[in-house]
Amino acid sequence: MFGIILSVFSALLFAFGDVGKKILSKDIDPFQITWIPVSFGILIGLIYFGFNGIDHSNTLDILPWAVLSGLLLLLVELVFLKSISSGELSLIMPLTAFVPVFSGTIAWFFHAESPTYTALLGVSILLIGSWLMFADTSDWRNIFRPFARMFQDVAARYMLYFCAIDAIFVNVMNHGGDLSSAPYFLWLTLIFESIFLSILLAKNNLNPLSPIKKYPAVTLGTGLAWSLGMLAVFESLTHTLIAYSMAANRVHTIFIVLLGYLIFKEHHFKKRILTSILMVIGVLILILGS
Question: FRET pair for 206, CA 20 to 30 Å: which of 24, 46, 114, 150?
Answer without folding.
Answer: 46
